[in-house]
What does this fold into?
Amino acid sequence: MRAETANELDAMLSSHRIWVYRLNRTLICGSEPTKDMVADDAHLRCTLGNWLATRAQELDLEEATYAEIVSIHKTVHDLGREMAASALNGERIAEDVYDGFLASSESLVGLIEAAHDKIVASINATDPLTGAENRSLMDKRLQEKIASSRLTGDRNWILMVDLDHFKSINDRYGHKLGDTVLKGFAAVVREHIRSNDLFFRYGGEEFLLCIEHVSEETVARVAERLRTTIAQKIFHTPAGEHISVTASFGVTALAPNQTVTEAINAADKAMHSAKHAGRNNVAFSPEAS
It folds into this structure.
């Protein structure tokens, strides 16, 4: 959906620029203005206006951004209509109206470009298979959590999660089923964490979570609930077999006096302890308490 939104924003930006060119050409050359320039509802008659009215709200566009684009877009058309009316009547176009038109049009272009770039950045930062964030922004995002905990005193936690024997699933059933398992695992995680928690694909079948502002007892319950829910999830092979997958969890505190690398290494060591304990386990780092 985000890629679709970005593509359509790019197309709408092009359509707006074409409309501005057509209006300027009409005013300068003295051509007859079209309906999408002079009608009272001109802002709904152009390609961008029609898209905003009928399609944009179905896409992944922030509500405040959408409302601002709609408002400025109408202003652009209102000023364009005023200029077109002056030209039709043989009157000189007022400088303040033309300046306002240019400023509004530039603001509209800037809004659309910013929305497009934000969505593209979000796409690039997200693993397309699982929807988890990529590692590209992980260090920055975890640094922000550390800075926040220094101010609030609240505890944040790192969970390193590795799917047990995942390679055997790929080897036996193929990568398509492996991808299905990864997507299913990610769906379970998203159902059990909050919107302010962080979820990264660390690499392959290994994931990293950051659960913020909870006690050690709470994060232990979260990890255990994830572990049992994942183990209970059933996947269907092409041959009709029913299989399941388990995961091993390593948990450590994201302490204010630690670096991100130190915290991740501690969580990773704890995860390997969970593996050595028989897999399908939750292990806490000695540094967690």
The chain has a mean pLDDT of 93. The first strand starts at residue 156 and ends at 163. DSSP finds eleven helices and seven strands in the chain.
